[in-house]
């Protein structure tokens, strides 16, 4: 994808012309021109010279992005750099116009005094008007150069309308001046009254004022993106050879050690290697609460260290930092076009020629009906100057740019304009479970001590023995105990009994930890506690039992817990008129427990990776469907959905496959994305309505359609003022999006669509398997173990399905190609388990 700066465009007709010219170049697969940023994005195998030549043949200028900009990945925001020249032009033109108006209207119409030289000298007064008008036209020659160049290239634009209107007024007035030289008395005075020099000049001055307002407003649309760029730190304090040194941010390299003191901004992405603190990450995620950081925590560029001292190791620098990627995504999204923009593009492509035709027809009709030539010309000029394709061309891109900026500030990245439009049309949201609805890691949920045992005693002994294990569930108990500030007791003769549990000695007594089946072989479990174990297991949790000296101590349950905002997010989606379903590969019991706890409308459990996209395809027949997920196996489903939404903390493959990225990894951002998309689409509709209705009302008024009926007519000067304000109003309306808070929830009146019948609630699991490999695995003790083994295999091999069973101690793999057992065994070993051969 190559980016070009395009010069000479003044309206949507221009951008449509450039897009068509470049699109016709052989080798170009797609071209998108942005009137808002005066830029063009081209995809395809074609040289820059050919692209530039095509643009120049269309009557415009183009320049490829500089090599330096590409190398440094610097985002160039095309702020309107012509505001100052425009203001200077406007001021000089306005001064001359005021003098001109004094001669043409002040004296001629209202009798304002003039020097004696001009008394009764109508020719002299007309000559002064001609000179002043000509001076204003020369100062604003840009309109004529652009307008007539477009006419020569058979690509008329807004400047063509303005220049034709102004030139027609001027030429007619010059003709009238020559006629004045051969007339005398009252006839000469009447001709003086019929001059249009002030109209020729005022049209240009008013359009210039409109251009200033439009350029200023357009500049405001990039403020959100500019503010993100301004967040990027300029320097970093790094440690080299034992000394601290402040260096420019460009000199920081991967593996450099950088220092963060309170109040300092994080220069690049990195990992904490020393210290503890809290960081303000609101500028990236939209989350106002500070985030705690300790050893091995990730820190991100432009976030702010609030309290403690941190020493970090750089992991991503330059264009690879999170902030740089966000800026790049938002900027590139501004260069794309939403589907709704195609309506305006089609209209803009034929708008100017049609308006010129209407102006000529208007002029001819008034002449035929007996009107004076000057009057008919005035009606034709009014049609030319009131018509404005600019408003049509700006209606969509300004809203897209502002909407993307608001989203970036709220931690929501829309990768393109189409995603920003379609997200709001979502009727069904499919959610992955692990990492999307849940946290993706086990946490202690229940502690049930046996009779005569305190909760603290149970937890301390469990902590002491589990601390020595590398099992994921052991990590959950360890983290929970450390939160309670407990201290471990020394454990002697620790043993990890593969596939069974843990064994050790505390105070000379045997201590055991493991499943109910394992503990039953060491001591007795009473019926009440067994019922508790069964209840916990049926609710999707993993119970772990503990015994000491032949006596049962109790049970601690752990599970992948629901994120704090998942319930409220699902509820808000429902209140927005959206159906919510959950798709997971977990077993039915666990899936239903999670689904019921958050309130989804439907649960699809036991779904194989290839089956997720099949369910999405099915759901799409019932309504616009979005898929939200974070795993590698979610990528096909994200691609299949109308809108793919990736959780920011997910895998790179999932993020690359998605249309929308939730930077903060909170499900509440999904509802915010839907609300922002709907508000942006509403804003675009408002802009298009006003752009269309303005011309629908304005052109007939200018043509004089209402004169015979209501006696209402429109002077060309007022038409020029109205045209200038139309674009300004459209851009200003788009800027209102900056006031919108996407996290502020309001119920929608939209009715929810139907879901597939419950009977269709499963995928076809009878698909043909080319290869099936079953591996015996020791060390799996719970569903969490199964999950770790599955993820390890899915990450490292191209497989269709992976099914793990800790009870059968087997992993079944189906794939299109044979699986190398030695490689599988190595991957399983890296995950913390042991492959013991292929099953017969």
Structure description:
The chain has 840 residues and is an alpha+beta fold. The chain is 49% helix and 20% strand. The protein has 31 helices and 30 strands. The strands form six sheets. The protein has a seven-stranded mixed sheet, sandwiched between helices. β5 and β6 form a beta hairpin. α4 packs antiparallel against α5, α5 packs antiparallel against α7 and α9 packs parallel to α29. The longest helix is centred in the last third of the chain and has 36 residues. It is elongated and about 130 Å long. The relative contact order is 0.09. About 3% of the residues have low confidence.
Give the topology, please:
Blueprint: E1 2-7, H1 12-23, E2 28-34, E3 39-44, H2 48-57, E4 61-64, H3 67-72, H4 83-107, H5 122-139, H6 141-152, H7 158-180, H8 185-193, H9 197-221, H10 223-231, E5 235-240, E6 243-248, E7 257-260, E8 269-274, E9 277-280, H11 282-285, E10 291-293, E11 298-299, E12 304-305, E13 310-316, H12 322-334, H13 341-368, H14 373-386, H15 389-409, E14 412-414, H16 417-422, E15 428-432, H17 433-437, E16 438-449, H18 455-466, H19 472-483, E17 492-497, E18 501-506, E19 509-514, H20 516-520, H21 527-538, E20 542-548, E21 551-562, H22 566-575, E22 579-583, H23 588-598, E23 602-604, H24 609-620, E24 625-629, H25 635-640, E25 643-647, H26 652-657, E26 660-662, H27 668-703, H28 707-710, H29 716-735, E27 771-778, H30 783-796, E28 801-805, E29 810-815, H31 821-830, E30 834-838
Parallel strand pairs: 15-22, 15-24, 22-23, 24-25, 25-26
Antiparallel strand pairs: 1-3, 1-4, 2-3, 5-6, 5-7, 7-13, 8-11, 8-13, 9-10, 9-12, 14-26, 16-21, 17-18, 18-19, 19-20, 20-21, 27-29, 27-30, 28-29
